[in-house]
Amino acid sequence: MATDTDSETVTPDVAQFSTDTSSREEALLWVDDHLKWLMTIPAVLILFSLTFYPLLRALQFSTQSYLPTGTVFVGVENYVQLLSDGAFLNSLVVTAKFVGIAVGVEFILGFAMALVLNKKIKVRGLWQTLILIPMILSPTVIGLIWRLMYAPNGLLDFIAAPLTGGANVGWISETSVALYSVILTDIWQWTPLVVLVLFAGLQSVPDDISEAAVMDGASRRQRFMHITLPYLKSLIVLILIIRLVDALRVFAKVFILTRGGPSDATNVISMEMYRTAFRFNNFGEASAMAVSLLVLVLILAMSFVNIANVEFGS
Amino acid sequence: MTTKQDTSVDAMPYTEPSGLEKIHERLTETGLTKAGVYGALALFLVWTLFPVYWLVTATLKTRETLLSFPPQWIPLDAQFGNYARLFAERPEFVTFITNSVIVTVVTTIVATTIGAMAAYAFVTFDYPYNLDFHLPFYILSTRFMPPIVTIIPLFVIFRGFGLVNTLRGLILVYTMFNIPFAVWMMKGFFEEVPESLIESAMIDGHTHLGAFFKIVLPLVKPGLIASAIFTTIITWNELLFAVILAQSSQAITVPVGLASFVTKFSVQWINMSVAATIALAPVLLFAFMARQQLVRGFSMGAVGK
Amino acid sequence: MVTVEYESVKKAYGETIAIEDIDLEVDDGEFTILLGPSGCGKTTTLRCLAGLTEPTSGTITLDGHDVTNVHPKNRNIAMVFQNFALYPHMTVRENIGYPLKVADVGKEERENRIEQVAETLEIPELLDRDIANLSGGQQQRVALGRAIIRRPAVFLMDEPLANLDAKLKISMRSRIKVLQREMDITTLYVTHDQEEAMSLGDKLVVMDKGHIQQIGTPDEVYHQPVNQFVAGFIGSPSMNFVEVSHSDGQIQAENAPEDFDVTLDDAVVKRYSGTDEMTLGVRPQYFSIHTEETANAVEAEVEVTEPQGDEQIVEVAAGDVSLTVVAPSTIDTTRGDTVWLTLEDELVHGFDPETGDRIGDPEEMVATTRASSSAGSQS
């Protein structure tokens, strides 16, 4: 390219086209031509081979029985087995209790807190960072923290002493109490998420809408019922789905706190699955449990979306 | 102008506020509601933070003061030696930390890169059958699948490939785990980059790939950092896959190591607290660094782990 | 010497055709404007030349080289985007110098050229600023700078003035024109603003619905629109169109045969002999408005007047026919008044009501148009 430094006689360089036919240039152009596939293939490949393919295999496993000599196709026998498996049925009840109570309390507590904070608190505050902490901690660490608090003669026994007269509650060793202790841990961890999400949602209710409602003479209660709630509807559904789906697959907390005990009082589905598969080496029945859990999650999530008639991701 | 409209108001020009409204107004004037709100917030923060404080202070106590009745609220005679003792009594913990660091760093780099590339492609290109719309959606939906569902087949597949008890296996699983999130998060950032910038860069002499690296990536740096930090935290914390896919010490990560403190009949309280504190320190550090993106990410409900 | 040629270029997105049958030649150094309403395909046409959109069929040549499938980076084309597309993470200097940096031009020469370009655009003091701190007009100049620093073979501009306010638009318009003349670079410029197009272009390419409607000088497209679309699109306020019946020079509006009933000049009648129905096109400027009853005039009632300073725009209704008229502000009329409109009948256009094509011999039009344009202004 000739250098032409005289600005008065700026003339276009002679048009230059793809005269470069070096292999590097060729390769670069080839990459550009196929970029749309080259950029997506790694992600799609990994997700296919490590998510969808195992999913299909899980379906296959759930129709097989594992014998020392190899596998046998048994059709739906594993599923039939599940229906009469006391431990599994118990784990369904335990999971339902866990999910129902934990998510219910988290939602009510979190929504109430978000409402209290709304408008009176600086939008971005240190408090938001601080309440993140339980959410980002490893469930393992959380399990250990609460094991420490639930320890005999530990902090929670001390706090409860006025009610119990000093006797140890046996927070995670007493059959009637253990599940509630695990639930309390989950509530501790996830209520902040509900607060954060719903607070952000409340903050995003446009002022002019509620001001217009004020001008129309709506009372506080009416504004809440007619403006705020409908505005938050999709967000409420989203947070409930996230929490439901997440609570259904709870594992680490239970694994650390109680291992499903005492006497299966905290034996949630994932725990039962883990034991069936890796303690009793019954991959067939464990896979049937896994598939059932997946179906349960799908039904729950989809019916939720349908009930609220909101679209995801919007 | 011919039709005269009735312009008189149909109600009183001023309505007396109701009793409740009046009480609320009075409270606001005196600042009592504000005090109430801050009181509630303070209570909530104590409830949220105290357990973490309790763990961290436990690392400075002795076996006696740890479970004393009444509790020792502030560790008076700080036992910093507890930290050295953990590594003396459980030297393998160093290996666990090394393993976790390797797995976390590699996973973060790989997952963020792969996720960002896919997200960019979905935002930029048109795919047949509307895949650019559907694929990201399916990718995200895998996040809602309980991971335990695939764990048995993964265990069997990995056993076949000799990937059980290897860091490579864990990295592979965690990459799979984090890609959906990276795609979804980066997608939002790429959508903010005007298409004309990429076109301009191509006209200025870049290939499309060159424009992606030189122009687009620098612009979405905040997204890359946020996505990397999320990936780091999730990977560092993960227990389920680690327990099942890495049972021998050459591949044990910190969460599995932590879990081992409670498998015995007697819990090693002090060592456990020290190890847990070491495990949570980097998470807190990263979270603090990315606090704004974290608040935003969680607030959008984008994260569910 | 760079000429551009489109040969039956077509771009379709599935079933939807964005552009079709695009045949266009741009001479070296020519300033060509692609003009049309939004969605007419003008930007697609431009993007095909840039290489940002790949044509479905047809060829595009630059100076005889077929570049239809050449990567944009290898076309030596510069482009200014509507939103300027400046790299937000770079300074002004880095933005302007970026094409040279990509081309591996040495730092020293790069700096020289940046300084030169900044001088030309009168922005040397902005060089070390961040893009975020620039006003719209300043960003526009940086975008121009980045485009010209490479001395491109062809200069493409996609609505470069659309994001500027009215005043800045006019000053940037003349700057672009001067720059283009000085650099003598073949330029294709997309706009939907016909006023901008008329004032800038050597050649106007009027497009609609993916097809080129007319190619010509600003004068040609204004005075000899080939069809009703071009006639209506060019000129402000828009041309009036009236469905009329015609016999022997007698013109009657179909919706208001009594109010709109005029006889045309003999010279004009010849053009429309053999046509008994047509769409009559009259520019608002080619009516003369009278407040007293006038012979051979359209009788109408004033609906609204919009003063514009020296002129006023008068909306009138002749029966069911609404007409827009531009009149001197000295005419005193107001809503409800009855007025009489006479036609500059050499300047009316007739269009086929079915196809929208113009009726009449264009050659003859040129003569009558030129001859009467001075006479028309006296009435």
TrEMBL record, chain A:
<feature type="transmembrane region" description="Helical">
    <location>
        <begin position="129"/>
        <end position="149"/>
    </location>
</feature>
<feature type="transmembrane region" description="Helical">
    <location>
        <begin position="37"/>
        <end position="56"/>
    </location>
</feature>
<dbReference type="GO" id="GO:0055085">
    <property type="term" value="P:transmembrane transport"/>
</dbReference>
<keyword id="KW-1133">Transmembrane helix</keyword>
<dbReference type="InterPro" id="IPR000515">
    <property type="entry name" value="MetI-like"/>
</dbReference>
<feature type="transmembrane region" description="Helical">
    <location>
        <begin position="98"/>
        <end position="117"/>
    </location>
</feature>
<dbReference type="InterPro" id="IPR035906">
    <property type="entry name" value="MetI-like_sf"/>
</dbReference>
<feature type="transmembrane region" description="Helical">
    <location>
        <begin position="288"/>
        <end position="308"/>
    </location>
</feature>
<feature type="domain" description="ABC transmembrane type-1">
    <location>
        <begin position="92"/>
        <end position="306"/>
    </location>
</feature>
<feature type="transmembrane region" description="Helical">
    <location>
        <begin position="187"/>
        <end position="206"/>
    </location>
</feature>
<keyword id="KW-0813">Transport</keyword>
<comment type="similarity">
    <text>Belongs to the binding-protein-dependent transport system permease family.</text>
</comment>
<protein>
    <submittedName>
        <fullName>Sugar ABC transporter permease</fullName>
    </submittedName>
</protein>
<keyword id="KW-0472">Membrane</keyword>
<keyword id="KW-0812">Transmembrane</keyword>
Automatic annotation (TrEMBL), chain B:
<dbReference type="InterPro" id="IPR035906">
    <property type="entry name" value="MetI-like_sf"/>
</dbReference>
<feature type="transmembrane region" description="Helical">
    <location>
        <begin position="135"/>
        <end position="158"/>
    </location>
</feature>
<feature type="transmembrane region" description="Helical">
    <location>
        <begin position="269"/>
        <end position="290"/>
    </location>
</feature>
<feature type="transmembrane region" description="Helical">
    <location>
        <begin position="93"/>
        <end position="123"/>
    </location>
</feature>
<comment type="similarity">
    <text>Belongs to the binding-protein-dependent transport system permease family.</text>
</comment>
<feature type="transmembrane region" description="Helical">
    <location>
        <begin position="35"/>
        <end position="56"/>
    </location>
</feature>
<keyword id="KW-1003">Cell membrane</keyword>
<dbReference type="GO" id="GO:0005886">
    <property type="term" value="C:plasma membrane"/>
</dbReference>
<protein>
    <submittedName>
        <fullName>Carbohydrate ABC transporter permease</fullName>
    </submittedName>
</protein>
<dbReference type="InterPro" id="IPR050901">
    <property type="entry name" value="BP-dep_ABC_trans_perm"/>
</dbReference>
<dbReference type="GO" id="GO:0055085">
    <property type="term" value="P:transmembrane transport"/>
</dbReference>
<keyword id="KW-1133">Transmembrane helix</keyword>
<dbReference type="Pfam" id="PF00528">
    <property type="entry name" value="BPD_transp_1"/>
</dbReference>
<feature type="domain" description="ABC transmembrane type-1">
    <location>
        <begin position="97"/>
        <end position="290"/>
    </location>
</feature>
<keyword id="KW-0813">Transport</keyword>
TrEMBL record, chain C:
<dbReference type="Pfam" id="PF08402">
    <property type="entry name" value="TOBE_2"/>
</dbReference>
<dbReference type="GO" id="GO:0055052">
    <property type="term" value="C:ATP-binding cassette (ABC) transporter complex, substrate-binding subunit-containing"/>
</dbReference>
<protein>
    <recommendedName>
        <fullName>ABC-type D-xylose/L-arabinose transporter</fullName>
        <ecNumber>7.5.2.13</ecNumber>
    </recommendedName>
</protein>
<feature type="region of interest" description="Disordered">
    <location>
        <begin position="351"/>
        <end position="379"/>
    </location>
</feature>
<dbReference type="InterPro" id="IPR015855">
    <property type="entry name" value="ABC_transpr_MalK-like"/>
</dbReference>
<feature type="compositionally biased region" description="Basic and acidic residues">
    <location>
        <begin position="351"/>
        <end position="361"/>
    </location>
</feature>
<dbReference type="InterPro" id="IPR003593">
    <property type="entry name" value="AAA+_ATPase"/>
</dbReference>
<keyword id="KW-0472">Membrane</keyword>
<comment type="subunit">
    <text>The complex is composed of two ATP-binding proteins (XacJ and XacK), two transmembrane proteins (XacH and XacI) and a solute-binding protein (XacG).</text>
</comment>
<feature type="compositionally biased region" description="Polar residues">
    <location>
        <begin position="369"/>
        <end position="379"/>
    </location>
</feature>
<dbReference type="InterPro" id="IPR013611">
    <property type="entry name" value="Transp-assoc_OB_typ2"/>
</dbReference>
<dbReference type="GO" id="GO:0016887">
    <property type="term" value="F:ATP hydrolysis activity"/>
</dbReference>
<dbReference type="InterPro" id="IPR047641">
    <property type="entry name" value="ABC_transpr_MalK/UgpC-like"/>
</dbReference>
<dbReference type="InterPro" id="IPR017871">
    <property type="entry name" value="ABC_transporter-like_CS"/>
</dbReference>
<dbReference type="InterPro" id="IPR008995">
    <property type="entry name" value="Mo/tungstate-bd_C_term_dom"/>
</dbReference>
